[in-house]
Hints:
By secondary structure, the protein is mainly beta. The chain has no helices and four strands. The protein starts with 27 loop residues before the first strand and ends in a 13-residue tail after the last strand.
Amino acid sequence: MSKTKLVRNASQASEGLDIKRLYLPGWTLESPCPSCGDLYERDFGNDYLSYPTPGEWLDQTFECECGTEWKVPIRLVLKLEIEKKPK
Ligand SMILES: [Zn+2]
């Protein structure tokens, strides 16, 4: 008897996501300027990730009014599970 299952075919699977604009409402990256300490934030509900590849580091660049520019590497980690709905 066969069971319901989720199958990943590695030879056909793409590492990237075919998502031109990935918005993540509720997720905000906060980072203080390394020079003056002013706090900056990037709201991923408004500022999208373009064609993100899970597991790959993406530099987020900030620029402070004091002239300092810095990068914060982030990455998207996807965990996928398939569950049966409890009866
Ligand atoms: Zn600054």
